## 1
Amino acid sequence: MKKISLTGIKPTGILHIGNYFGAIKPALELTREYEARYFIADYHALNIMKDPEELADSIRQVAAGWLAAGLNPSQVIFYRQSSIPETFELSTMLMAFTSKGLMNRAHAYKAAVQANTEKNADPDAGVNMGLFTYPVLMAADIILFDSDVVPVGRDQVQHVEMAQDIAQAVNFNYKSEILRVPQAAVQDSVAVVPGLDGRKMSKSYGNAIPLFAPEKELRKLIMRIVTNSQAVEEPKDPEASQIFLLYKLFASAEEQQALAARYRGGGMGWGEAKEELFRAANRELTPLRQRFEAFMAEPEKLDAILKQGAERARPIAAATVARFRKAAGI
Ligand code: TRP
């Protein structure tokens, strides 16, 4: 039997190239080896997003984005967290096995408290219970679907470890393997994708290239990549240039070698290097962009896919809750 891979996708609006190479592609690669269950974590997003239109739009963008990037909904169970009410049953039951101290130690909560303390504000100012109990909800997301591995970024490892602790506390109490204990699969081998200014690509730095930018915008953004003042004729070190690092993500090994030789040989200016990057990026991104636009134009189709996913997901979730309730004497 195949092992189960599960991950939650926070609907944070527009996806960028860093998300694609850092999270989406590696998670989709896992779907060959694992039975995959990937969901849109919309209740998690509610903790921070209170504008209904913004949230609804983010959910749609992210769902369409993953589908356009190659998520195959007949192979992956793809659903919205909010379509699985069992999440809340399990989450409530897990609360009974989660010490408050564990939540006090969660990075996101600790960071909020520290920021408040530094401002001499009430330590819990602006902290809602959704943020405080976030790790329990995430543990429920994971445990509900018998997850073996959870592909996440480094910042989420602590949350997966908390899910492990909580599942183990339940199993220990009932002296039986009621809940499957998950492992984090940190996606480390993935290169950091540089942004327009050379720092890591991130929405918060304002240096991101949107994954589905229209061709014209894509070109304009690439032309805006910050470069040094080396003249056209000067030989250039490809590995020291974020233009080349980005090019590598889109080009074949032969293409990379050929272009690296042109960098080193001198006679190629940054404008031309950017033009080469644009060509390679646009070649890979055009079919994705077209699929994305098609999904965005047909929200009913998107909703139907997610609904179908939820229909496949719910019996699995119900079985976990039933097993736990029986063990608990409820
Ligand atoms: N907390 C994750 C993030 O911020 C999203 C998430 C929610 C998640 N539930 C999950 C990830 C379950 C993995 C498994 O990115």
## 2
Amino acid sequence: MVVDMKTKIAFFDAKEYDIASFEKANSNGEYDIKFYETKLSEDTADLAKGYDVVCVFVNDTVNAAVIDKLANYNVKLVALRCAGYNNVDIEHAFGKIHVVRVPAYSPYAVAEHAMALLLTSIRRIHKAYIRTRDHNFSLNGLTGFDLHGKTVGVVGTGKIGRIFTDICKGFRMNVLAYDKFPAKDSGLNYVNLDEIWERSDIISFHCPLTEETKHMVNPDTIAKMKKGVVLINTSRGALIDSEALLEGIKDRQVGAACLDVYEEESDVFFHDYSGHIIADDTLARLISMPNVIVTSHQAFLTQEALTNIADTTLSNIRQYFADGRCDNELCYKCEKVGKCPQEHKKLCF
Ligand code: NAD
């Protein structure tokens, strides 16, 4: 009798481009991967029964109830194929199921998308594209402004934020930075958050979503900003209180918003709802604004990033099962308590 010893992976929220990149990375047939279109949630966790690993993305739900179900089915590993992990209850997972992630796959992809959104917005490229396709060559209403000499506030100066600041410096912009943990010797001009709000013509968000950063853009902080400020969010939707943003746009306090993420994105983004009625009034109203550009969590989507995501995810799984450790393990003691004794020389529990 031949016993199939391949590690079995239940892959949730699988899109065409995921399947293509993971099939390529797994072309030697090392893993047995089942691709599910559905997202992981309490309702779908049963699909993971009999699998060793669940592979999930940003809008899958890995809360306490899902973790308990997975642990009960003897799933050993949650392999995130993304960097952010605000959708995983890592504290509840500790001692029950290991969690690994892809900490970086192409920070360039996200930083370049942030600049692409900014340029599109302030030079009205999205409007011009539609006009000229209709043979409308009028320039009325397309007046933009120079980036040169403008002040950009960068919130979060990790991998993506640092690359974004470099891009902005290339445009000869003045860069102000804020980070809870400023990078020493970065040469960045760190200021406090109030100064970011008060002095920036443009603010770009590159920090993680945490209890502390949730709704950091709210009625109070919007009121402190320069009139006409341009906001760019390629990080996580809930950094911005969407209702407050909408009011800020209606009041002309916010000049433009470039959103690759949205706080209620999980039911909408990544799906084709053309021809459907969108139930989310706030999103529909934001999209209807001439000075709001929404892309649907697309910033990561480059060939380079997809290849790196697939390769790192499979290598995380390989390392976990072969070596009993993983450099990219997530552990709340490492993250929150800051003193996990394992220091990633072996697994955290
Ligand atoms: P990173 O960990 O390298 O950098 C995050 C930075 O935020 C760090 O410097 C950290 O000190 C800082 N930070 C932590 N708490 C903070 C706080 N309360 N206030 C201000 N700064 C704080 O992460 P990264 O790779 O640069 O990614 C940044 C974010 O981008 C991720 O958290 C993720 O949510 C998002 N992201 C989005 C996409 C996309 O496709 N739109 C893709 C990848 C990552």
